[in-house]
Amino acid sequence: MIFEVSILGSSSATPIYQRHPSAQVVNIHERFFLVDCGEGTLIQMNRYKIKFHRISHIFISHLHGDHYLGLLGLISTMHLQGRTASLNVYGPAKLKEIIDIQLDYSETELRYPLVFHPLDATTPACIYNEDNVEVHTIILNHRIPCTGFMFIESHKLRKLNKESVEEHGIPVEFFHELKNGKDFVRPDGTIIPNSQLTLPPPPDRRYAYCSDTIYDERLIGIVRGVDLLYHEATFMDDRVERARETYHSTARQAGIIARNAGVQRLIIGHFSARYKNLYPLLDEAKSEFNQVTLALEGDRFSI
Amino acid sequence: MIFEVSILGSSSATPIYQRHPSAQVVNIHERFFLVDCGEGTLIQMNRYKIKFHRISHIFISHLHGDHYLGLLGLISTMHLQGRTASLNVYGPAKLKEIIDIQLDYSETELRYPLVFHPLDATTPACIYNEDNVEVHTIILNHRIPCTGFMFIESHKLRKLNKESVEEHGIPVEFFHELKNGKDFVRPDGTIIPNSQLTLPPPPDRRYAYCSDTIYDERLIGIVRGVDLLYHEATFMDDRVERARETYHSTARQAGIIARNAGVQRLIIGHFSARYKNLYPLLDEAKSEFNQVTLALEGDRFSI
After folding, report:
1. Residue B69 near chain A (CB below 8 Å)
2. What is the complex's ipTM, to 2 decimals?
3. Does residue A66 have an active-site annotation?
4. Which residue from A20, A72, A98 is facing B101, i.e. has the nearest CB?
5. What is the pLDDT of residue A103?
6. Residue B210 near residue B223, CB atoms below 8 Å
7. What percent of chain A lies above the pLDDT cut of 90?
8. Is the pTM higher than 0.95?
9. Confidence at residue A16, expressed as pLDDT on a 0 to 100 scale
10. B103 has a chain A CB within 8 A of its CB
């Protein structure tokens, strides 16, 4: 089953060298989640053949413009293109005001329901949970309230051990309870333990999106062992002081978080405009953690 | 002296085929005026080598997103890049609220003065007048309050007729008064009429920007004889009814306005997403007025 992250933009606040600000699409089983929506996201979706009408959930990490200024254009275009399906937007409560004032002043009455879900940037929460897919907030430490997002494809059900089930002649109508972990009890009272009849569910697959954040070791426990970690790397380590002042991280710090959290793979982004060539940032992160890749526009990362 | 219009975007509300929404830069004598600022304007400026720090006046026609959603990104980037020079923004009064709420919620305190000039969309006015350059509003008839802009390079001063001035031995300190139209009076009371000493000023050069507007014949008198007219052409004439309903114009209607106003040259833009190939719109406008060009991204029109 598909679990894929498409990068639409990974530049920090100042777009330059034709790089675009933050936006990603997470595709889990053909459900499409947009994560941040910097200016130009719609154009980038067109460029990379992502059908914006399939997006039904948008997650905005915080209210710095490079993370949400493309949202109004997307909302308006969905309206103009005749969308009727509801759109769920998750973000800081004040984002709702920003959306409303602009729809109001352009005299736009949306043809579809826009369901706004205010996020609490102080306590982590599960904000989406449908059909084996969960999204949780990650509390980030930035200059203004900011949340990252953890996408989880979770398999709650155990898998039937077909051979063993057949051998014991378990009736089909009991399969669901087996998957839920119940033992089988024969009419004569004999118990066949669940562990003999099922296999553990496949491991969850997890993607953690962490942008923007100061270097914060508390993240290590939160993203421990994820399959893919996006961690911002606005600066290189010779500007570690500047990173601290602006509540950002360096490429080396992103590598340290990834290594200490034992993640499978790291992608770095949110690159400062001062870096035309991004490979030195990659090398720097790699000096701490080998499985690292630049999150470049148009790239897709499969989990 | 340079008087040039650079097109950064000429798509209507839905950006598609890598076309960008409305934005233009008018360069008059190396003073750079930004006219509308759709999403992606900053990226487009980078692409077409327009130095955004040289922009000091921005004119926003109305509050439909495709005409202003790039403004916050531009304002923020100017801030991040250390701008100190003041920035003048002209637009509907409500635009100020939209700017303020977003700066407020991102906790951005601009390092430069942003001077906001609210525009009245009911009465035309001269909103800028410095060193031979004037900008006037044009009242447009759109679904929400909307102004176009007339850029005028105006020569108020007459030119010295050097030969005649020498011949009559006019002292240098009187040249300025000559340019202002005064006659020269000798100590003995003899009068040399100004018309013998000067030539008329060169004709004004004028660029009229009209987007968005329903077909409105009142425009003819307003843009009469301009050197360059930008008129929106959202649709083709087979959708004239749709154009009327949405307060837009067709390519043919743009041609009619240009012909009846006797303009030197017409450029059309604000193309609907329904037209991938724009040349049929050009042909349609051309059937009414021959001197017409598509306003395509990256194109520059010299006056």
Report:
1. yes
2. 0.84
3. yes
4. A98
5. 97
6. yes
7. 92
8. no
9. 73
10. no
